[in-house]
Amino acid sequence: MNAQRRRIPLSAYFEPRARVMLALGFSSGLPFYLVGNTFALWLRDAGTSLSAIGFLSWVGIAYSLQFVWAPLLDRVPMLKVLGQRRGWLAASQVIVAVGLLAMAYVGTRHGLTALGICALVVAFASATQDIALAAWRIEIARDADELGLLTAANTMSYLVAVNLTGSVLLSVAQHWNWPLTYTLCGLGMLIGLIGTFLAEEPVQADKVTEEIEKERPLWTLRGAFDAVIGPFIAFFKAHGPLALLMLLAISLYRLPDFVRGPMSNPFYHDIGMSNDVIAFARLFVGTPAAFLGMAAGGFLWVRFGRMRALVLGGICQASGIALHALLAFHPGSAPLFLAVMAIDDFSIGLAGIMLVTYISSLTNLGYTATQYALLSSTYAWAGKVLKGFSGTAVDSLTGSFGLMHAYAMFFLGTGLIGIPATLLFIWIGALEQRKPALRQ
User: Are 70 and 373 in contact (CB under 8 A)?
Assistant: First the structure.
């Protein structure tokens, strides 16, 4: 199989579709930290308690509920003149931009409730953008090679945006203010909007959608059933008895990263790292390390196969997160901080690209948005719920062990919760080898 695959040259990233994908991926990644880790640092700078920061991280649950409204993206046009996928992309991008500008205007001076509501709007619109973009990426690809190219371009530009909001903008906030930071990001959504207008609409997928709509109109009982239940039936038919194990493994795979997320920046703050140091580490250490991790992920995927690659990614992810415990015993050590950040971001890049590629390969044409939303929600829902208690966990441990020891125990614990997913993928791999008919 591998011998038949053509090599993708570096120049392929400058082709029209790849350039558009880079713009859209950037737009997709821009809001993520702004309602997550960077948002937590803003709150900590304003003196917000760790428990409150943890609870406010629940706005990210929107990313785990994508499957609830994903059928609308498959069947209901938003801006018909742009097409099914581009219409939803444009609408969600505009709402994200308005929401970020609203967060900048409201700020912490009007209370956490108002700011939290604005963040929730951004999270829901951002999750919608992710669904539409994933469907566009999968449907516009001409073959598996182009899907790989577009997935890589999407992941790289997404990572650039995430690291920008987790690095450079921290310095902007330190030297100017947080509202200015969020205003710049709101304006930055124009990059994605331009990409949407330049993008092609996946015509073949639209034809399939139109045929389904003619046969089973959404407003009929049969059509509503097909829109909501059809993607689940198709998924379980395709993967048989392994489907439940696959969903369970996917749901646990990124659990360590999600749970530790709200506490990362507050932890860096509390061990004495300034916003400038955090920004430097993310931009000049974390970003290159993450790109290396993604490249390594692609190599491991081809060299060892998907299951072994997923297992290696899971082990690396858990180890990188657990290493944060060392920082609690050496607060203020910039060299150690940079080393841990490098290992952590490499591991997250490695695990992330593998999981995205894996779930992208499991979708069916006609249900792309809903199935991808189901799978991406599956890998996020448990972590999004549990991370809300992360601040409470650290606060409760602090009373008995002190803040630094509490942080150390927290990061060790979050690393260890990656073990079940690794074991599940080992099991799935063994079952697939025993029953070739269940393979993809």
Answer: yes
